[in-house]
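Q: Structure tokens for this one, please.
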Amino acid sequence: GHDYASDCYIATQGPMQNTIYEYWLMVMQNIKKADNQGCQKIAMLTDFVESQRSKCAVYFPQDLDNCEIFSNTSSPQDENFIRENIDTIVNDGEKIETNFNYFIVKNVGLISKNGYTIRKLLLIYKNCQTEDYQKFTVYHYWFPDWPDHRSPQDIDVLLDLSLDLLDGDCNKDFGNEVEAEDVNKDKVPLPIIHCSAGIGRTGCLAAILNGLGQIRANSDSSSGEGTSVDVLGIVCNLRLQRGGMVQNSEQYELIHRSLCLYQQKLSQKVISL
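A: Here is the predicted structure, written as tokens:
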């Protein structure tokens, strides 16, 4: 009788250098499925380099007001042409003619929270064949201090991040007030979660989000006491959809610990449902 909420997020591998353009295409398609409503959130659970090994390509600008360009062309001169005209495209809204498709990603906001950061990214997409020109916003949550195959030192941060992904109001975080009637909460883009391979840390966070959903759905009181969570069932269900999710016993234990911490905070009335 448990709901595993398998449709509440998208779990992916971290983008590599030759897949960044396709990664942003996927994000854009996810936003379109939600009729361009609500906030698109991406949770990144890895650093770019760990133990001297590349874990994820740099697919967004880290610093405020910086831009990155990603295209479906293999010619550096093509991307240089966009770079030379980037102010005209981003600030003036001019649609520069090209014979290739491209994304411009600009960092327009940065917030530091306890243990993770949130970036507001403005994306501009141009398709030269269809003349499609899109502008959209993505909120990028970055939690870099989670060792691969292990548990993060502070699970309070992991729980805070999980609740932020579920409940956080991106517009308020960045000082943009949106009228309640303007947002249809039943039609929002699915959050996108990735680490490096997209199964260990990603599987843990996905299971925690599912567990939080079960606690809330099955809770008979605001305290959350007396609710049960089927962690084994959640992990089995995740593995049916994406092989290898949650890689070892330490990560499996982490899911239990995080959900226990949430129930403990509920009983102390620290978190309001």
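A few notes: The two ends are 22 Å apart (CA to CA). Residues 1-5 have pLDDT under 50 and may be disordered.
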